[in-house]
Design brief:
Elements: E1 4-7, H1 17-33, E2 36-41, H2 51-64, E3 70-74, H3 79-91, E4 95-98, H4 102-114, H5 130-139, E5 144-147, E6 153-158, E7 162-167, E8 175-177, H6 185-195, E9 200-204, H7 211-220, E10 227-231, E11 234-235, H8 251-256, H9 261-270, H10 284-290, E12 301-302, H11 305-318, H12 321-334, H13 345-366, H14 378-393, H15 395-405, H16 409-426, H17 434-442, H18 449-457, H19 460-474
Parallel strand pairs: 1-2, 2-3, 9-10, 11-12
Antiparallel strand pairs: 4-5, 5-8, 6-7
Helix pairs in contact: 1-10, 3-6, 6-7, 9-11, 12-18, 13-16, 13-17, 14-15, 14-17, 15-16
The protein binds one RNA strand of 76 nucleotides through helix 4, strand 7, helix 6, strand 12 and helix 11.
RNA sequence: GGCGCUAUCGUCUAGGGGACUAGGACGGGGCCCUCUCAAGGCCCAAACACGGGUUCGAAUCCCGUUAGCGCUACCA
């Protein structure tokens, strides 16, 4: 029997990188083992779930190239089954009705906290006699259903952590069915995973404390628990769980920044998993071939954007120019430089031609500068970037900026004078020389227009530059 | 607080009793290439959290300490 795995996001937000990686591991495992990958949307939190979020998640998976074999199923559709399971447990004495109100519970919890002790539900409703229960029911009091946690040692062999065990006395008699008849997460998951015959549950580390509860539920429902594999959390640079305040955490953010799906996939796969050895750049097929649950790290990993960008560069340089046309087109359209469906080929040809002319001119002019006296560092590059508008309007400012960057006064004057002449002759603006000059000064080499295009895809800032350039060119 | 998980360069990691002078990659520093702003090559700095065991021998096994994270809801 081949494995069946699932990815079960709740549509309460965008698809964040942690979820994406969990999905990826499931997907990798399914492909590796020739298993089935099920997608299930856990929308039981009606307050926060939206269709919009569902769409974003589906799109994100699609972009990453993570396809599913079954689904998407919507957990909401299985509410009847959840309720039936809860009622069955109730009938079998494995669960009981609890009439405590949320307010009472909150008060007791607060009280326990004040006393410095930890709150645990005291099972008072379990002690209610059948008559008491009937009386309350007749009164129309609302109730939840709590699982009666048996007193035993719960243990499982986690595929990534190894043996884990916990004494069930640490567990509360947790609620499995809300007073409105809807299931609580732990019941819903178990109920669905049983129904969908899930054999391996690969999910985030934050679920290890839920696992004992779920194992108990499996057994109470008369089923053997699946294999559990808890993958480590993804942290921000500060070592805290990755969240919005760390900047871009949605996979959509990275798509918009020009990250390639393949690069993202490769990067995510390596975040918390390693095939052993020194392997880093691995195409999809390699990833699948090498993947194993044992290779998953048990400690959390920090999301390092710099490394993602490096990896993107690796994929970028390996991608033929033709295949880059589409991403470039999308990016340009996104920035409003072109229309959505517009064919950008002619534009690019025009840019190439123009760029070639300008670069040649700039090169001629700049040969008068002694390159050994010009050293560009990151700061210098920033300065030249800022020179854009100055170049157009204020020669003095441009001169000073050049000097700051290390071009001596004579050369700067000379350069600017010559540029002005050339620009006039050719009907160009000084600003057109900005990028070529930068290239000339930095490396003193001419950039191939096509490569310029390549460079541009991966970088938001460069894209903006090209967009501005195109707008200028059109005007 | 309780319970659980975790602990190798700043980051991702290799390594799983002797092969360790602890390897690779990102990032950082330096140099080179100067048809590349996507890249490439070379060099440098940079880690086994701490304390006890076990062992002839420990980054590797055990215990403890510390720290971080997670859970502790009628959220998922």
């Amino acid at each position: 029997m081949t494995p069946r795995v699932r990815f079960a996001p709740s549509p309460t937000g965008y698809l964040h990188v942690g979820g994406a990686r969990t999905a990826l591991f499931n997907w990798l495992f399914a492909h590796k083992t020739d298993g089935t990958f099920v997608l299930r949307i856990e929308d039981t939190d009606r307050e926060r779930s939206t269709e919009e979020h569902t769409k974003v998640i589906l799109d994100g998976l699609d972009w990453l190239g993570i396809g599913w074999d079954e689904g998407p199923y919507f957990q909401g559709a299985y509410a009847d089954q959840h309720r039936a399971d809860a009622e069955r447990l109730l009938a079998e004495g494995k669960a009981y009705r609890c009439f405590c109100t949320r307010e009472e519970l909150d008060a007791r919890r607060a009280e326990a906290e004040r006393a410095g002790s930890s709150f645990r539900y005291d099972r008072r409703c379990r002690r209610l006699s059948p008559d008491d229960v009937k009386a309350r029911l007749d009164q129309g009091l609302s109730f939840t259903i709590r699982f009666f946690v048996p007193d035993e040692q719960v243990a499982w062999n986690d595929a990534v952590h190894g043996p884990i065990q916990i004494n069930s006395q640490e567990l509360d008699d947790f609620v499995i069915l809300r007073s409105d008849g809807s299931a609580i997460y732990n019941l819903a998951v178990v109920s669905d995973d049983i129904a969908m015959r899930i054999s391996h549950v690969i999910r985030g580390d934050d679920h290890v404390s839920n696992t004992p509860k779920q194992i108990l539920l499996y057994r109470a429902l008369g089923h053997e628990p699946p294999v559990f594999a808890h993958v480590p959390m993804i942290l921000g640079p500060d070592g805290k769980k990755l969240s919005k305040r760390h900047g871009a955490t949605a996979v959509g953010d990275y798509r918009d920044q020009g990250i390639f799906p393949a690069a993202m996939r490769n990067f995510l796969a390596l975040l918390g998993w390693s095939p052993g050895g020194d392997r880093e750049i691995m195409p999809e097929a390699e990833l699948i071939r090498l993947f194993s649950l044992e290779g998953i790290q048990s400690k959390p990993a920090v999301f390092d954007v710099a490394k993602l960008e490096w990896m993107n560069g690796q994929y970028l340089s390996a991608t033929p120019a033709d295949e880059l046309l589409e991403p470039v087109r999308r990016q340009l359209a996104r920035l409003g430089a072109t229309d959505a469906g517009q064919d950008i080929r002619p534009i690019i040809d025009a840019v190439k031609a123009r760029s070639r002319t300008i670069t040649q001119l700039a090169e001629q002019v700049a040969t008068r500068i002694d390159p050994s006296r010009v050293r560009f560092d990151a700061k210098g590059e920033q300065l030249v970037r800022k020179m854009g508008p100055q170049f157009r309007e204020n020669l003095d400012l441009a001169r000073r900026t050049l000097e700051e960057v290390g071009v001596d006064q004579w050369s700067a004057d000379h350069l600017l004078e010559r540029l002005k002449d050339v620009a006039e002759q050719q009907g160009l603006k000084l600003g057109d020389f900005l990028q070529p000059i930068r290239v000339v000064l930095t490396g003193s080499t001419v950039s191939e227009p096509v490569n310029e295009l390549l460079a541009v895809v991966g970088r938001e800032r460069s894209i903006r530059r090209l967009a501005a350039y195109l707008r200028d060119a059109a005007a």
